[in-house]
Amino acid sequence: MTDVLPESDDDMLSTDEELDPISDAEKNAVKNRAKVGSARPSSLLYTYGPGAIMDLPHFSIMPAGLGDWDRIWQRRTHIPTIIEPRLLKVVRDHLGRQVDSLRPYPWQPQRMGMSTEGSDLGIPARVFPQWLRCTGCDYLGPLPRFHYTNTQPFRPDHAEFTHKNCPGRGGKPKKGPGSPAVPAQHLLTCTNGHLDEFPYSLWVHRGKKCPKAELPDLKMRDANVGKSVGSTIACASCGQTRGMAEAQGSIGREKLPQKCRGRHPHLNAFDKECEAKPALIMMGASNLWFASTQSVIVIPRSDAEEKDALSDRLRAALGIEQIKQFGSQIAVIKALATANGIDLEGFTDGDIAAAVGDALTPAESDEERNKKLEGWDPVELLVPEWRYLQKKTLFQQQPNADGLMVTEMTRDSDLHPRISRVVAVNKMKKVNAVFGFTRLDEMDRVNDLPGRLVTLTRDRRPKWVPATEDRGEGIFLQLDLAAVDNWEQSISNTPLWEAHRASHERNFRRRFSETAKDVEPDSRLPAPRYWLLHTLAHTLIREMAMSSGYGAASLSERIYGWTRTPQREAAAGLLICTTASDSAGTLGGLVALSEPDRLRRLVVAALRRAARCSSDPVCASRVPSDPEDFLHGAACHCCAFASETSCEKANRFLDRRFLLDLPSATGETVPGFFGSADAL
After folding, report:
1. What predicted TM-score, i.e. pTM, was given to this entire model?
2. Contact call for residues 632 and 534 (beta carbons, < 8 A)
């Protein structure tokens, strides 16, 4: 499967086609509407971002790259930004210093029910896959062979492609507008993040051209309804047929094209070179798209940090070109900043000059940036939050009311002594940003083999990235650090921990066999204290869901668990929180559980519930052994697993034996951090 592409000096080849659905709809005489669906900001960040496939009622689409979003933003004189210097710094470290800002998704709330405000905003997207199958006659063909209609202003779910003059399976033309068409499910992808249409014509003709027609008509017939692996491709011109089941597995992969074309549908572009072998993937596969994101909890900023943030505000509002032009004229910079809504009260001319100088600092080379990233650890985003939570004297000041507001709670005298502190998080704001995405394999860290991270723009140097703001509440629990250190030392030499370590290495080697051979597996294995905190968080989420007023899927965890290093002190704490994208945040049902007596009873109930599982003794004594490579021990859906929205590690690194004294397969009892359940 080859295409002749134009010669270019760039490393990415693209067409000149501009994607601006709203303008196209305004100019189109047919008056097809631009809007085809809607999604929440959180789903666009984690599930349906640029490069992902979003299923609509009648076809599927792929959100476009950020370059196409700029034409949407040009409809506004003021582009909103999210100011969070700590997260923006991490984005720049990974994507380059040219990133000016974090932006919310292009959306505007309506002040009145029948208002049209915001109707000129939205996420540009392309139809993908662009091969469709007629549901009336099984015809399989490219997008131009089908007719598109989307004319009902309040029913975008009625948008569809139809096969006009469909003859039907019996050969009798169907009356009416034609038969609906649905996407063809088969695609090709590779570990470098490329995605392409399946070459149906080459497949059915076994790599050759049809002897009867230059552009043959194809049919896709389902042998098993609802199971696309049973599909058979037939050429209506020459009569050849071939089943799609042949393309599956390692043997089937050898029958596919052996070189990837390097296609990025979200960018409408091709990479010039890709040495990876394509693999068959279904349109709805869970490993088709993995978002690479990072998030921070906004903590109150000091005066010095506010001055540092001024540089980011200036770059976002004025742009680097205006700052270069007027950087030496502080009065002009002040006037431009004020006109763009930046409050300069409390900033001296020296502060503004320093912010201008910081904004104009030359960007480091890609080699320097990549070298710095080799030692980067996502834990660095959590360290400032942990340190703030250790400074009780700052809790009363709360200078940033829009961020984190916390209260040190009185600890119940009967609360387990190994829980040393309880902090009520009355108000919090969480900012999330997306860096890019991967296919087939999810990266544990965004700096793992940066070449695998699929870019969001054609020039690979985005000037902004999408971000969301969530507001909510939570409860922070801190364990006794000395007790955790002692317990961790006793666990590290046990056969159970060695079994987990060996299983993790097997899992890592198998799962990343094509993409991360140079990464040392032990460097990605969390310490025993993380397993302890993670398992405790899951048991608390299950118990809190029964009395907080929020479902378990609405509660999420944030684990502060790492050992001491020269750069940071040790930590052992967890935050259970719930957030919502609504500006009003949440309703207070979770933070109410931090009251001393209620929390004591909740912790005891959670630990007692964790002591038993309906799958015991199988669950309680589960230990991975070669060739098994699962990343949990005494944990399952009946006792410790949480929903995907709640867990930051996809239900990995869990073991109830780290919480409590439970029997093992060998009869040896591993020392649980909280001791025996009978003593609670």
Report:
1. 0.85
2. no
